[in-house]
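Session log. Operator J.P. requested a structure for one protein chain; no other inputs attached. Running the standard single-chain path with token output.
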Amino acid sequence: MNPVVILIIGITLVIGMIIVLRVNAFVALITAAIVVSLLAPGDLAEKITRVAGAFGSVVGAIGIVIALAAVIGKCLMDSGAADRIVRSFLKLLGEKRAPTALMLSGFVLSIPVFFDTVFYLLVPLARSLWRTTRKNYVLYATAIVTGGAITHTLVPPTPGPLFMANRFGIDLGLMIVMGVIVGLPTAALGLLICKLINRFMDIPMRSYAGEQEIESPDDSQLPSLFVSLLPVILPIILISANTVTKTLADAEHAARLGAGDVQNWSAFNVSLAGKPAEEPSAAARLMSLLSGDVQQSIREGATTGSFSPESQSRALTALNNLLADSGLYETDAFAGIILPAEAEKMLAKGLGRASPAQVEHFNRLMLEEVFGEQIKPHVWNTPKRKVSAVAAVLGNPNLALLFSATIAMFVLVRTRGLSLKELSGKMDTALMSGGIIILITAGGGAFGAMLRAAGIKSCLENLLGGQGQTVGIVLLLSAFAVAAVMKFAQGSGTVSMITTSSMFAAMGITSEMLGCNIVYLAMVIGSGSLVGDWMNNSGFWIFARMSVLTETETLKSWTILTGTLGVIGMGFTLILAHLWPMMPPV
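Structure written below.
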């Protein structure tokens, strides 16, 4: 069956089951994944097992992070740490800048805490501010949405952004940094939109029908600001440190050939330009990939036994370009070559997702094995690489969030005086809510994997027929539009991000096709998932109920605001993609 037809069937199943049949998102996604897998090419006996395999791979990648994030959020709420962060922002900025304080509070807290929980926490403060000022109630309520909605859709470890980072192979530290870079100016402009909405909707605060107002605890009952912020900022610091140290270590390009690394040019040229072999060989493979002029100079050097410094420099440049080629290694060409254990591991993981520096390292190891003493062994574990290795352990998202969860649990126990049994009960509650999110995200991952198996990538390549800036803009705008349509159709921003990113990941989109780093694709999908927010979204009703607004008032405030935030976020993303494309090094 045509891959495009399979794609349409899969998307129709997901939307139809969620909207028409009111089926849980996980059941809809996993059903669509199984149907797509049955329609896709492959052995019939493996069509169901590959769905389970794809599901398990996603759980292995993000399951621990989501579960720990749920624990951290629960502890922050119950210990009063989240309340302390909000009050500190209000105290720092003052009553006149209360909307900014509420926006920043929502922005920070929605990183480790799910949006609906953040809104439950902050809306009593908005109501309290109205009692003091007797004005700007809609401004206070929408300011919370502005900060919380942005990080919920752009910054891990919230499920949608976390899934996109994993699906597109984006470094988690880069995803966090870019989410903040795009999110902060978007939220700042969003606050201006809140003020415009407030001007046209001068609505006073209304009392809850038959419900008591939530009483805020006294300041003396709350943990300190540093302790409150620590579970939030610690994983960000550790993950970002991992990204920074890895970038610095990769920038050394320790595996590249330098002057003196080829210890015997005469012997090297003879080995490289030796008589054409009937069977494939590593030397012949390497020689065939070099340009004609470089091949000619190597052959002349092999014949004459002399190789000028200029020729050496050109040959080194050409060889270093080949070191960055993840497709240099071929099984037939390198048959009989005993791979070092380190290279075996890298090959087993797949060179397609390795960083350029790791590819250079692998290929350099290959050359050292093939050409023996002619090429000097390189030093990979430089001081910067050793620091990066330590940071990679501490900055692993699973370990970083485990540290954060441990601190958050300690703060909860110390602040509220809980017994271990009571703490266990609260963790059970948190993990049950996180478990649902894990199932949905893994179901979306399996759906995307089956779309890839259907061959949608080749269809996209034929459709685009190229790459570059124009194609990149079309792809980014298309991703934004698909995410917006998915959000409007089924209501959940998380499901919109999961489904849309699964579709585009299945198409095999790369940074080269976009003309910019693929992290920008994740940014426009996250932005698109804010558009088309109306009555089929649970957040719509949470905002309406907790703010005590009518459905019409919520459409005029919540729906307009979230849609505008999505458009602004997309605009900032496109500008950054043009000015700062961050193309991977070659």
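Operator note: The chain has a mean pLDDT of 86.
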